[in-house]
Amino acid sequence: MNLMSAETGKVYTVRDIVTDDEELNAFLFSLGCYVGEPITVIAKKKKTCVVSVKDARYSIDKALAEAILI
């Protein structure tokens, strides 16, 4: 399951990040989003997803949210 199919307000654990882009992996790691880290979906819209990671909130696009498996 990915972040776009997650329920809002529920805490999940990042299981995998499906991307071949090393720069994207480094960016997510700098945000604190990596395998084993708790993540909460705060809100979802058609093209974006607002998530909470390590007491910070981020708005990510749909493609990135679909690459983060929980």
Can you give a write-up of this model?
The chain has helices spanning 22-31, 62-67; strands at 11-13, 16-17, 38-44, 48-53, 56-61, 68-69. It has 70 residues and is of the alpha+beta class. It has a single domain (3-69), classed as SH3 type barrels (Roll), CATH 2.30.30.90. The protein has a four-stranded antiparallel β-sheet with strand order 1-3-4-5. A two-stranded antiparallel sheet has the order 2-6. A hairpin with a 2-residue loop joins strand 4 (48-53) and strand 5 (56-61). The chain starts with 10 loop residues before the first strand and ends with a strand.
Which secondary structure elements does this structure contain, and how are they paired or packed?
Blueprint: E1 11-13, E2 16-17, H1 22-31, E3 38-44, E4 48-53, E5 56-61, H2 62-67, E6 68-69
